């Protein structure tokens, strides 16, 4: 999915979680959630996040392929567990939720994701192409929902 689709979808999830979990530090929660909703694309040279933090993306791009290791469940689970251990449960939830929202949206595309690679060959995929009608539709839909939620929070 496109950069903006990942952001508006994860913002929707973040706003719902803020309400459900009664999160105090909402700004930090949303910043982490939004950052990690786009972070998995650091393994794609042309992605917005790769172009913004080249010092980190350059070595990652040399070692990993797009939708490879950075599109598995291992990174978000590890980060969540580390934050959970150091008593930052809510921040761990933000990281995990943002990252998994990215994986979920990418699983709707024709390319899909293999979130358990290399241990299992299971691939989750859908019927939609990145940057086509459905991607724009989701972007607009969640933007409208986000605006509604922000106004009514």
The coarse silhouette is globular
Average pLDDT, to the nearest integer?
Answer: 92
- The parts where pLDDT drops under 50 for at least 5 residues are none
Annotation field: number of helices: 7
Written overview of the protein:
The protein has 153 residues and is mostly helical. The chain has one domain. The protein is built from seven helices and no strands. It has helices at residues 3-21, 26-38, 48-52, 54-63, 74-85, 89-106, 133-151. The longest helix is centred in the first third of the chain and has 19 residues, at 3-21. It is globular.
Helix and strand topology:
Layout lengths: L2 H19 L4 H13 L9 H5 L1 H10 L10 H12 L3 H18 L26 H19 L2
Helix pairs in contact: 1-2, 1-6, 1-7, 2-6, 5-6
Features:
single chain; 153 residues; mainly alpha; 7 helices; 63% helix; globular
Short structural summary:
The chain has 153 residues and is mainly alpha-helical. Helices cover 63% and strands 0% of the residues. Helix 1 (3-21) runs parallel beside helix 7.
